Prior knowledge:
alpha+beta, 6-stranded mixed beta sheet, 4 helices, globular
Amino acid sequence: MNTAPLAETLSAWAAAWESCAPARVLALWDRSDGxxxxxxxxxxxxxxxxxxxxxxxxxxxxxxxxxxxPAHVQLRLLSADVGLAFFxxxxxxxxxxxxxxxxxxxxxxxxxxxxxxxxxxxxAEAPLAPLLELQxxxxxxxxxxxxxxxxxx
Length: 153
């Protein structure tokens, strides 16, 4: 099955976040689904239905720049009108008041074809698996040298 439309939607989603424009992100969201789901990694509860619009808009308030870089992307058509993207994400958000947040998470994103356009209706971020976190730590130590490794008191 051809997953190119899913890849295009994911690419548009990443570009929309990097544009710091909530209208572009929300243009890719299926607002007709009252049970759609958005769960960012820093949230305790998922945002459901119309609450998703508000949370995406709030994440963009004061946003000066953003990086949204998917990696190790796995795409799968689950049916003719439902698709899945699973990937690791490197993200960084810089705000006007000079605060910057970011990190690495894994993402599950479900899309559905609505009137021949793919729209996101389920998005969930989660921490990377502990072994991947540990692998990343050792890769950074190897790249930076043992002198940068934290020392226990």
